[in-house]
Amino acid sequence: MLNQILLQLLNGLVVGSSLALVAAGLALLFGVLHIINFAQGDFFMMGGYAVWFALNLTHNYVLAMLVGTVLVAIGGGLLLTAVIWPLLQRSQVLVLLATLGLSLILQQLATNILGGDTKLVPPPLTVAVPIGPILYPSYDLVVIAVGMGILGIGYFALQYTRYGIWLRAVAQNRPMAAALGVPVPRVYVLAFMLSAGLAAMAGGLLLPLQSVYPTIGSDVIQNAFIIVVAGGLGNFRGAAIVALLVGEFNALGQLIPNVKPSVLTVALFCLVILLLMVRARRQHALVRL
Q1: How many structural domains are present in the chain?
Q2: What is the mean pLDDT of residues 75-85?
Q3: Residue 236: inside a domain
Q4: How far is the C-alpha of 43 from the C-alpha of 199, rounded, in Å?
Q5: Is-contact 245 62, C-beta < 8 A?
Q6: By residue range, what is the domain housing residue 83?
Q7: What CATH number does the domain containing 16 carry?
């Protein structure tokens, strides 16, 4: 039993670190532009396909990851700019509908061009690493390390680099940031590219573990929204922490006998609703004080 718990804890870190990349990009976009991107999961899907194509051409997984992530980051960032930029001063409902439409278009294009079958590649590393009493796949450990590393670098960049300071300034007060000389349009495009690139990297990392297919983005975006809402909309660090907790919750929940994944999802939604109720009551109490 202890072996199973340790195994599921590690599996939860694999899923959680990948979900954290998707959710962090979603939180970053909301923090800067105050919009929620329904197409975020589809950039996860595009990242998986891009790495799959690049791997068939280069036969080098590291190079394929770099090429696929950069291509989706640039292409996705420009696509989001073209779709969202004209609607920034309009109602947020229009932006939500535009990103939802973009998501449906990307899924249909993927189905028409690539087919509805799954694309899977073998893990680039097949060596098992002894961790206590179990042997764990080395590639899964690489996924955990890369996910955690990217999140750490992202948090450091937001706090201490020039572009990170610009991103936080625009998120806090856009007119004031523009008046102080911050290149707001450049910050917008950077936020779009980072958001798409983080999702694409997660899709590429998980390609050898769960394959890619046209509608995988819909499965991913559901958990990503739960994570972003629970972590605090626009909170990069909160989204990363909650993503790891969600990964562990789903992994450890599989150890409970006769519990279906749908039951775990419902339980997760209930926990998020309870968290929001507690948070709202606490904020109301602070206002009264």
Answers
A1: 1
A2: 91
A3: yes
A4: 6
A5: no
A6: 2-255
A7: 1.10.3470
CA distance 61 to 202: 14
CB 29 within 8 A of CB 225: no
Query: Does residue 263 lie in a domain region?
Result: no
Mean pLDDT of 266-281: 78
Beta strands (DSSP E) in 66-186 are 128-131, 134-137
Q: Is the pLDDT of residue 243 over 60?
A: yes
Question: Does 178 fall in a domain?
Answer: yes
pLDDT at 288: 41
CA distance 203 to 129: 24
Average model confidence (pLDDT) across the chain:
85
Planar angle of CA 17, 23, 24, nearest 5 degrees: 85
Whole-Å CA distances, 205 to 66, 124, 181, 187 = 11, 11, 38, 27
- Contact between residue 201 and residue 65 where contact means Cβ atoms under 8 Å apart: yes
**Cα gap 244→83, rounded to integer Å:** 31
Burial of 117 (0-12, 13-18, 19+ CB in 10 A): exposed
Compute the distance between CA of residue 172 and CA of residue 110 in angstroms, rounded to an integer. Answer: 37
Q: Is the pTM of this model over 0.90?
A: no
**Beta-carbon count within 10 A of 81 CB:** 16
More reliable by pLDDT, 61 or 229:
61
